[in-house]
């Protein structure tokens, strides 16, 4: 899926979410062209698909088209898988946003636990 196609799909998809989920997200949802490999994993093994940002520039979500494309090429995604992965990632990042607004960090903790488990798994393979 091209960057433009993914952007159009993301725009349509975002409209299906309840508007209150976007309250306080002053920087919106951004689709960026970058590929963001996770530096803690071997090259090509793990990518950052999206991130919720909350800092001096405000609150916003970045989704990385290049990271999706790298996984799609490796795993031979079809259009339906692209859509599912975009939706899951947007939902995940919106959950981070809602938890941050409420002073919670449950999803952050779960993400950290999953990453730690994946790191252990990769170390055991080496």
- The helix content is 40-55%
Oligomer: single chain
Helices and strands, in order, run as: HEEEHHH
Radius of gyration: 15 Å
The total domain count is 1
Task: Report the β-strand fraction as a percent range.
Answer: 5-15%
Supply the number of helical segments.
4
Indicate the mean pLDDT. Answer: 94
Count of strand segments? 3
Uncertain stretches of 5 or more adjacent residues: none
* Largest sheet report: 3 strands, mixed
CATH hierarchy class name: Alpha Beta
Shape: globular
CATH architecture label name: 2-Layer Sandwich
Q: What's this entry about, in short?
A:
By secondary structure, this protein is of the alpha+beta class. It has four helices and three strands, in the order H-E-E-E-H-H-H. The longest helix is centred in the C-terminal third of the chain and has 23 residues, at 79-101.
Which short descriptors sum up this protein?
4 helices; alpha+beta; globular; 52% helix; 126 residues
What does this structure look like?
The chain is α+β, with helices and mostly antiparallel strands and 126 residues long. Helix content is 52%, strand content 13%. It has helices spanning 3-14, 65-75, 79-101, 106-125, and strands spanning 29-32, 50-55, 58-64. The chain has a three-stranded mixed β-sheet. A hairpin with a 2-residue loop joins β2 and β3 (58-64). The longest helix is centred in the last third of the chain and has 23 residues, at 79-101. It is globular. The mean pLDDT is 94.
